[in-house]
Design a protein that fits this description.
alpha/beta, binds pyridoxal-5'-phosphate, 12 strands, single chain, about 375 residues, five-stranded mixed sheet, about 40% helix
Length: about 375
């Protein structure tokens, strides 16, 4: 019933050859960087969750992103990417990829037309993220794929999406024509804040191209991490149901606290700019709820975090525990003040990663925290 852990780096050479001299025994497994039974078991589970032919597991979400992009784009070619993607992704594209001669055109906002217009004949990858951090922006992925096909035909750029914030329970982008879906499995897929991991899923042909990069760049998953991830996946639907329900209730409660809260961003709220697109494409919206305090400046936001008891002050998301952070001081601290202002990440914006605790306890904690603002 459980997945055994093959905690070994190397496997015995086959002991038998056929009449032509080819090895015939245990030829599937040679060396764990290239493949391992425990890792392969979790890859099959991820493929099933995404409705994909194949999946690959990595040592981190960043390893998954790096290996996937370089499988399709190289020197002298281009990427078109949404500007509101994870900060580590921005650094990877602007530093490493640029040094490799692979240029990125950043497109602000979530307009499919703008992304497609930014593409040229040398664009090999269109890179998306949904929902985005921290404002849960959602774009019409179907329209992006359709418009790219119309403009470039069969040679359209590959569409890659980081759907970490959604999880395959809430959104399966391959059904909308995306070529590869990527996750930081560190987050919802594992769900217990005790593993760093990444996954990629798609057609076998495309995943095989990424596999070559995984072997070369070396970001393979460790078997023990694969075991923990497989264990976490067993409760993914239960956890996502709780994250979705708790975050919706927390978002509604915050929206009613009008004396302290200026704005709340959660896709189930009618006030969210992408409410309609999110409802059309997704079946739930995950645990991230972001809000802006009425008091400007970061002092009030810091006081709220200090007064919270159930929400731990910590980065990341996707574990069963509720967390709170101030994006201008954490996830988006590396951006210039002007860039943060353009994105709307002012010092009084607070991001919650709502966990699976009792929702009344969570709302009570937030009321207490907001009194301190
Ligand atoms: C949306 C998103 N993508 C990718 C990553 C990177 O994943 P990892 O930390 O597992 O390398 C993160 C990490 O926070 C993330 O939030």
């Amino acid at each position: 019933v459980g997945t055994p852990i093959y905690q070994n780096s190397t496997f015995l050479f086959p002991r038998r050859r056929d009449e032509d001299g080819h090895w015939v025994d245990n030829a599937d497994w040679m060396y764990t960087r290239q493949g391992n039974p425990t890792v392969a078991a979790v890859e099959q589970k991820v493929a099933a969750l995404e409705g994909a032919e194949a999946a690959l597991a990595f040592s981190s979400g960043m390893a998954a992103i790096a290996s996937s992009v370089v499988a399709f784009a190289g020197q002298g070619e281009g990427i078109v990417a949404m500007s509101e993607v994870y900060g580590g992704t921005v650094a990877l594209f602007n530093d490493q990829f640029k040094a490799m001669g692979l240029s990125t055109t950043w497109v602000e906002g979530v307009r499919p037309e703008a992304l497609v217009e930014a593409c040229t004949e040398s664009t090999r990858v269109v890179y998306l993220e949904m929902p985005t951090n921290p404002f849960n922006r959602c774009l019409d992925v179907r329209a992006v794929v359709r418009m790219l096909g119309k403009r470039f035909g069969r040679n359209r750029p590959k569409v890659l999406i980081d759907a970490t914030f959604a999880s395959p329970v809430n959104y399966r982008p391959l059904e909308d024509g995306v070529d590869l879906v990527i996750h930081s499995a560190t987050k919802y897929l594992n769900g217990h804040s005790d593993v760093i991991a990444g996954v990629v899923a798609g057609s076998k042909a495309l995943v095989d191209r990424v596999r070559v990069q995984m072997k070369n760049l070396g970001g393979s998953m460790d078997p023990h991490a694969a075991f923990l991830l497989a264990r976490g996946l067993k409760t993914l639907p239960l956890r996502m149901r709780a994250h979705n329900a708790n975050a919706h209730a927390v978002a509604q409660a915050l929206e009613s606290m009008t004396s302290k809260v200026e704005q709340v961003w959660y896709p189930s709220l009618e006030s969210h700019p992408d409410h309609r697109v999110a409802r059309r494409l997704m079946s739930g919206y995950g645990g991230i709820v972001t809000f802006r305090l009425k008091s400007a400046g970061s002092r009030a936001a810091r006081r709220v975090l200090e007064a919270l008891e159930l929400f731990y002050p910590a980065p990341s998301l996707g574990g069963v525990e509720s967390l709170a952070s101030i994006p201008s001081l954490t996830s988006h601290a590396a951006l210039s003040p002007a860039a943060r202002k353009r994105l709307g990440i002012t010092p009084s914006v607070i991001r919650l990663a709502v966990g699976v605790e009792d929702v009344d306890d969570l709302v009570t904690d937030l009321r207490r925290g907001l009194k301190a603002a």
